[in-house]
Amino acid sequence: MSKQHFNEEINKLEFPREEVMAAISNGIEQGRKEKRPRNKASFKIAVTVSAIAASVFLVSGLLFAPVTNVLASVPIIGAIYDRFSMQIGYELFESNLITQLNEEAKSNGIEMTVTSAYYDGNVIGLTFKAEGNRVSLDRIGEQEEPDVGYSFHLSDSDEQKQWSSSTMTDLEKTSNGYVGAMEFDNPNADLPDNYTLPLTFTSVTGVKGTWKFDVPVKRIPAETIAADDESSFEEYAIHIDSITKGKATTLLNYRTTLPLTGKDDEINIIVFDNKGNRLTKSHTDVMSSEQNDSIVKNDVRELFSSKIPENAQYLTIQPVINQYEQETVSSLENRAPFTVTSPRLDYQIQVNDIKQNGDQLILDYNIQNVDTEALGKDIIQNFADFITLIETNDIVKDKNGQLDMNQMINHQIRSKQAKELENDNLHFQSVFTIAGSDFATDDYSLLIPFGTLSSNNPVEMEPIKVELK
């Protein structure tokens, strides 16, 4: 058989491209959600293997009709959750826990239909379809609605304002209309088991209208396990209060204690079950916060978009402290050499020399007291790249005496790239270009982002083991 004849025969086959691509995308997405490789080299290998697997799968789909037939028979609702890599929705669909709907609304020649919904933990998700001759993806980006192709709002009552959209997919054209999906979450501790989500679409691919829905949902029953486990490190502590096992989600309720000097620090958690499966983070809500003269206490609820297996015996929770630090200001009125030290940590830079050459200011310095093995050279390079210059008169502070970075961002001057002069002792040079050659060095200050170093060198606390049985 000639190559041309082969291609002609292949083209005659009905190939469900959208379903195949959705399956491939889902596989790659699931791979990304596994524990990440420790280095860039292994990550590149993983991507290559995924690409090879995708290629083989495509060829198999073309050559073997049974594969395409199976894919073509996948119900549209499951295919939407799969296509958009919505892990919660797809997991619930696989467990037959999605409520299929047919809620319709028409406006300006477009018919909108809410086709499915679910309510697990504190998450409501839904899929929808838009049909009509006026729906066209060609207009997306030219109108006021977001690039996803549609806009909406919820009820204006105080209760409904608590629901926020955490996922808003693009519209996609299918053989069954234009489809999309959304996910909403609510930080409230006490939510009703039966609920009606008041959703109104206000535009679809640039066509304005009113498509109003009252989407009925019933929360899927979940198991809440009380806990009383904690870990501490110096002035930091975390106490696990409860774990809620949803059918596709997991909620952890815990309390953190921070020193007042680190009120903007965070205690983040990484969670594994006893089989080594890592729970996929979704988002964190601070339910309440209080502080006194020395400490800050936060009541926290964290959502994971993956479930705990039924046979899991315990969870291992690894807390890590991410210490926050705002940029440190140092005036160039100081005569080199001089040292700038982090107010909270031991990091510092030694400014060796400052030179002016036409419209350029050349800064020569050493970065000191950093653990190059723990941070890595790329993080240190990034820190040096983001040392910026600002005219001292453009420094703005808020009412609490903190730098107002939003007011200052357009006044900062970055070097193109900090150049490392010596490999062994972190000796760098940054060159800043200032408009005009008649500037006075004394009129400028450095903004030094020591927080870049601390945020990339978190402090590990003792892990917590929480029994599930």
What name does CATH use for the topology of the largest domain? Immunoglobulin-like
The structure class reads: alpha+beta
Number of domains: 4
Number of strands: 27
Mean pLDDT: 81
CATH level 4 superfamily of the largest domain: bacillus anthracis domain
Largest sheet: 6 strands, antiparallel
Rg calc:
28 Å
What is the top-level CATH class of the largest domain?
Answer: Mainly Beta
Query: What general form does the structure show?
Result: globular
Could you give the distance between the termini? 63 Å
The CATH level-2 architecture of the largest domain is identified as: Sandwich
Number of helices: 10
In helices, the fraction of residues equals: 10-25%
Q: What does it look like?
A:
The protein is globular, with a radius of gyration of 28 Å. The protein is 21% helix and 42% strand. Strands 1, 2, 3, 5, 6 and 7 form a six-stranded antiparallel sheet that branches. By secondary structure, the chain is α+β, with helices and mostly antiparallel strands. The protein folds into four domains: 16-27 and 41-74, no CATH class; 85-218, Immunoglobulin-like; 223-324 and 458-467, Immunoglobulin-like (Sandwich), CATH 2.60.40; 328-448. A hairpin with a 4-residue loop joins β23 (419-422) and β24 (427-433). It contains ten helices and 27 strands. The chain has helices at 3-12, 17-32, 40-63, 65-72, 76-83, 87-94, 372-375, 377-385, 405-408, 450-455, and strands spanning 99-107, 110-120, 123-131, 150-154, 164-168, 172-174, 177-185, 194-204, 207-218, 223-233, 236-245, 250-259, 266-273, 281-291, 295-304, 314-322, 328-331, 338-341, 348-357, 360-368, 388-391, 413-414, 419-422, 427-433, 444-448, 459-460, 464-467. Residues 1-74 have low confidence and may be disordered. α2 runs antiparallel to α3, α2 (17-32) packs across α5 (76-83) and α5 (76-83) runs antiparallel to α6 (87-94). The N and C termini lie far apart (63 Å).
